Fold this sequence. Notes:
The chain has ten helices and seven strands. It is an alpha/beta fold.
Amino acid sequence: xxxxxxxxxxxxxxxxxxxxxxxxxxxxxxxxxxxxxxxxxxxxxxxxxxxxxxxxxxxxxxxxxxxxxxxxxxxxxxxxxxxxxxxxxxxxxxxxxxxxxxxxxxxxxxxxxxxxxxxxxxxxxxxxxxxxxxxxxxxxxxxxxxxxxxxxxxxxxxxxxxxxxxxxxxxxxxxxxxxxxxxxxxxxxxxxxxxxxxxxxxxxxxxxxxxxxxxxxxxxxxxxxxxxxxxxxxxxxxxxxxxxxxxxx
Length: 249
């Protein structure tokens, strides 16, 4: 049965990563503004965003279902729109910062009898309470541009997924030029009201030269969203979470 709880930050787990990430400049959002934004969105989220985001969501879950390993973490589970699409053998834990969104997800799990969902937890994705390597796969759908610090989110997903496991993201990434770029830049000051970063770029999430990219695929409609599949770094090649490299930093 799915449960909801609030998990505290574990200072011992995060102290090293804090030293590396604390100076990251993108922090226009904060946890309270995200909670407030999604408190407003919770009741209408499925109707407003469910349709346009469905293609990317389906592709992400299909990719998860094809991968080896059964322990799946869905980061930013929201109202649980993706939960019915996982294969029964996948054992899914979902986390979200918004209690209002989680209540909708719990209702979905109960109504549809989704026994493969093992937990729905109220938790900060930038400061997870899970042990290192607790999951085979972590997937974040339309979440990376929502959190205050996406690089901290990425580092946490790296940490809680076993070495050699898989990280998947579906998100809107900003255009590099043209009319859409101007619209996104114009909307950027509204991040706190919207609850997400309209001008979110790949570089806000990870350094392409420092990760093992399995696939980057545009998703309908019109390539508005992108599915990114990364292989989690083995200990010998880890970057953000490699203790030896952190000690030398």
